[in-house]
Design brief:
Oligomer: single chain
Strand order of the largest sheet: 1-6
Number of helices: 14
Distance between the termini: 19 Å
Strand content: under 5%
Number of strands: 6
Length: 346
């Protein structure tokens, strides 16, 4: 594809993304926002696992740090919500920094087991530190206010005849955050840090011989990944409008690993594609489950939409590992390369 064609494709995609709130209802907007939050978190875990080769099972912990830090800083500390959001992301980075000495020295399954402890510690704190977290019931999330503009249902706002509530307003905030997160990660991967990260993943000894400070890079990427998780946590809190401990459990961390494997390890686009697949599937099954065989309504006997979604993307992970090492992004690249050959044969 030529450069001009790429520009046209990106321009069309941007225009479509901006037009979405004017045509789709609340269900689709909320579903899309869930996909955006998942994509931000998946980009972070892909920098760590896909690009650097560090297995982490504790990514949900850093989402929880970002979400609850935002709530506490904006509600209890009384800080302006934009400052609270920035400090919440920084808090997730600090949490990752405290763990980074371990991340810099462990690798593979050993690091995965070590990060798994973060989930158990985090769940214990979230359920028992009721003064800060609200315990089992969680806490309400203050809406973001930026330069006097509230990302909430009130005050009322009508744009081109379309009422803009919290979801419509958050849609554009999510687009900006996702675009910025993707652009920054892509710059990291395409620059010298990305080359060093890939070398550590593929040939750790060779990276050390070449002068790459392996432990320092591992620790630094872990902190960066934690900050991405914190940003995703802030956005998911704003979308949910309430944070509860149950959401930030082991299953969420496994979902993020599924996202990067299905989408494609080591690439920003792969993380976004995988996040869309894994986060949209349960929502779609919930919406259209009554029209699908073997899928029952939540709470009834049979396979619930959430369980069906996990079965399907579990099968997708196995299929990708066996037949598509590059994930869905690799499959798209293969199809793109095959198209010119098909035209030549004709």
């Amino acid at each position: 594809m030529s450069r001009a064609a790429r520009v046209l494709v990106w321009a069309a995609a941007a225009a479509a993304a901006v037009a979405v709130p004017f045509y789709l209802d609340g269900f689709w907007l909320q579903t899309g926002l869930f996909a955006m939050t998942a994509a931000i978190g998946a980009i972070g875990i892909n920098l760590l696992t896909g690009a650097t080769g560090q297995l982490s099972l504790g990514h949900a912990f850093f989402l929880a740090v970002g979400a609850y830090a935002y709530v506490w800083l904006s509600s209890d500390a009384g800080l302006p919500t934009p400052l609270a959001a920035v400090l919440a992301v920084a808090a997730a980075g600090v949490a990752g920094g405290l763990f980074s000495p371990i991340a810099g020295r462990l690798k593979g399954a050993y690091l995965g087991i070590a990060t798994l402890a973060l989930i158990f510690v985090g769940q214990h704190v979230l359920f028992n530190a009721e003064a800060v977290t609200g315990g089992y019931d969680g806490r309400a999330v203050p809406p973001m206010e930026l330069f006097g503009f509230a990302f909430a249902d009130a005050p009322g706002l009508v744009v081109l005849g379309v009422p803009f509530g919290s979801l419509e307003r958050l849609w554009f905030l999510g687009l900006v955050l996702l675009g910025g997160a993707a652009a920054f990660a892509r710059g990291v991967l395409r620059g010298r840090p990305g080359l060093a990260m890939n070398t550590i993943r593929d040939h750790e000894i060779a990276a050390g011989v070449m002068g790459v400070p392996v432990a320092r890079y591992r620790a630094g990427v872990f902190v960066l990944s934690s900050m991405y998780g914190g940003l995703a946590g802030v956005l998911v809190a704003l979308v949910f409008q309430r944070v509860v401990p149950d959401y930030f459990g082991m299953l969420l961390s496994l979902d993020y690993l599924a996202m990067i494997v299905i989408g494609g390890l080591g690439s920003v686009a792969g993380a976004v594609i995988g996040a869309a697949f894994v986060s949209l599937l349960p929502q779609l099954l919930t919406r259209y489950g009554d029209a699908l065989p073997l899928v029952a309504e939540p709470g009834s006997s049979g396979v619930s939409p959430a369980e069906a979604a996990r079965i399907l993307y579990g099968a997708a992970v196995v299929s990708v590992v066996l037949f598509l090492p590059g994930g869905l992004l690799g499959l798209a690249a293969r199809l793109r390369r095959a198209l010119p050959r098909t035209k030549e044969l004709r």
